[in-house]
Amino acid sequence: MGARRRTAGRSRLLARRRRGSGPAAPDDPFESRLPELTAHIWHAKDGELAETGMGTMARRLPAVIARAAGLAWRASRADTAATISLNLAAGLFTAFGLLATTGVLTALFSAGPTPDRVRDALPSLALVAGSVALRSGLQAAAGWTQARLQPQVQRLVELRLYEATTAADLTALDDSTFLDDLQRAQTRGMNAAPQVVQHAVDVLTGAVGMIAAAGTLGVLHPLLLPLLLLTAVPEGWASVRSARMRYATMLALVGVARRKWILSDLMTERRHAAEVRSFTMRPFLLGEYDRFAAHQRRVELGLARRQTYAKLTGDVLKGVATAGVYVALGLMLWQGWVPLAVAGTAVLAIRSGQTSLVNLVFAVNQCYEEGLYFGDYLAFCDAAEARVPQRALPPPDTDSHPALPADFARIEVRDVTFTYPGSDAPSLRGVSLELRRGEVVALVGENGSGKTTLSRIMGGLYEPDAGEVRWDDVALTDVLQAEVWSRVAVIAQEYTHWPMTARQNITMGRGPEHRPGEPEDPAVLAAARASGAEEVVADLARGYDTLLDRRFQGGAELSGGQWQRLAVARGFYRDAPLLICDEPTASLDARAEHLLFDRIRDHAAGRTVLLITHRLASVRYADRIYVLEHGKVIEEGDHTTLMAAGGLYADLYNLQASAYQGGDPLGGHS
Ligand SMILES: Nc1ncnc2c1ncn2[C@@H]1O[C@H](COP(=O)(O)OP(=O)(O)OP(=O)(O)O)[C@@H](O)[C@H]1O
């Protein structure tokens, strides 16, 4: 008794601990220390599916099939037409074979000596054999064309999505709804497309098989038709019920499955590997994973049990229905409504129709499910295409868009205002500035003041909500995007570590193709020398041909500063009249940083540079400095003027200078 009370007390204590920071209950995977998760894209449609009845499905199915057919038609007209006609022809021969069977049975069941009866049956038997062989050949050919269709459909849907996402306005990719829809379309919807086509063809095959069997029965005797339905309904019911149970179970396991994905990502991805080890996360992660996996196993074992019951019930009902059919057939024979040969053929037709109906019901279910995800994909593509700016498209006639002037005198930012989608406050409010040709102009300001946003507007990545950027008298928003991007080189604050060779990381797919053994492109060498990437490449095993990604064999990994030198080389290589450098030295060592600013000044000869940096020692030589605060220009002038003004720039500059001179940075002026 006392022991039981102690145990109960301990359980309460454990439960309290679990509610706090202790380990969660092994049998309750939802009492976890991981954050609560929303429904995952992979299962986003399960709820909708679980609640949709067969009637609704049947009503909505034609639209899904029409979309699948349209897609297949665009992917390959020949294969689509062949798939449909081969399936129809196979159905025709199924019916023909069944009808010919009556001839065989009639001959066999007629009076007379057996050899004569067999001889009489031979022509019909040849017809049956011929139609079975033809049907098999047609079905095999249909399978082949169907298999050919799959990769063509896949290619079409992938291309459409990537064409839209790479051309969509950059602000679309700042929009969380757009990103959610993209993820769902990419990870689930895109794969659903070939599945929908496959299941739509299965629906067609099942329907054709059903119609063939039903047609045969109708020809034999109209009363036989309801018998087909009677036997097929229980099995169809069991298969749909079992599929529904699977969906309901998947739905119940959404949270668990998603957590398992997250945990498996944490345990296998290279980017987490060092922290998993240094923070000794292994037992925690493995323990969490095991609890979720154990729960999932329990639920799935329960599902297997219930599915077996459903199948058993279906089988019993099917047995009862089949017995009913035989009784009905016996009665019809007894009454002389059908001859014995027709009854024999009817049994075969009913069996064939039964299989087709079960396949049909299953295909309808699958087609509908994949159709929901495919609908997501289509909706996303439409939305993404609507967000492709006119200026991204190739011009219908070249005169409709002006070119940027080759020898501009100045670039002017006039009264620019910009708010990110979904943000309440504007990131830029009436910003105006000017860059004369050949100048180095610096943008300075505290974190979040709007420097990167402004540089993106000047680089033609965002369009301002109000105001404009002009190159002499040409407004940037009138020019084709590709033209703007080719005239502006950007060394971005956040740049991509392209999983490509060192050379490709500099040329970015431009310039002459490099063949093995050929001398290096002088432009690549010059950009690498100016940026300091030359030393990085010299240390690589295969020089410019080294693949910069450890995930591939022979791939190399670079340090943060080494990557930054390559990113700078990329900007220098693109010989554009305007160079935007957004924090180009954040990861560089002191010597590399000093050298880089010198080289940016050299590079500027004849070009215009917009330099964004927090290293104020490097901006003192800029021709003009603009100071941003909360999206507004609050100061402008050269270093001397701004220092004399004693405003924010002077404060920030003195703060940095005093830190180097050993003064008290918090005191400001030492
Ligand atoms: N993609 C985005 N979506 C919504 N808001 C954004 C986005 N990018 C930046 N912002 C907001 O816009 C404001 C300006 O950001 P921006 O990156 O231009 O500042 P910054 O001056 O370059 O800062 P830092 O010195 O830290 O690089 C910030 O308030 C930031 O939160």
Question: What layout of secondary structure does this protein have?
Answer:
Blueprint: H1 2-19, H2 46-51, H3 54-75, H4 77-109, H5 114-167, H6 176-220, H7 224-252, H8 254-268, H9 270-278, H10 282-335, H11 340-386, E1 410-418, E2 428-436, E3 440-445, H12 451-458, E4 466-471, E5 474-475, H13 481-487, E6 488-491, H14 502-507, H15 522-531, H16 533-538, H17 560-573, E7 578-582, H18 590-603, E8 608-612, E9 624-629, E10 632-637, H19 639-645, H20 648-660
Parallel strand pairs: 3-8, 3-9, 6-7, 7-8
Antiparallel strand pairs: 1-2, 1-4, 4-5, 9-10
Helix pairs in contact: 3-4, 3-5, 3-6, 3-11, 4-5, 4-6, 4-11, 5-6, 5-11, 6-11, 7-10, 7-11, 8-9, 8-10, 15-17, 19-20
Bound molecules: adenosine-5'-triphosphate.
Would you write up a description of this structure?
The protein has a domain at 61-388: Up-down Bundle (ABC transporter transmembrane region fold), CATH 1.20.1560.10. The model is unreliable at 1-42 and 665-670 (pLDDT under 50). It is of the alpha/beta class and 670 residues long. The longest helix is centred in the N-terminal third of the chain and has 54 residues, at 114-167. Helix content is 62%, strand content 9%. It has 20 helices and ten strands. Bound molecules: adenosine-5'-triphosphate. Residues 174, 420, 423, 427, 445, 447-453, 493 line the site of adenosine-5'-triphosphate. Residues 1-20 have a biased composition (Basic residues).
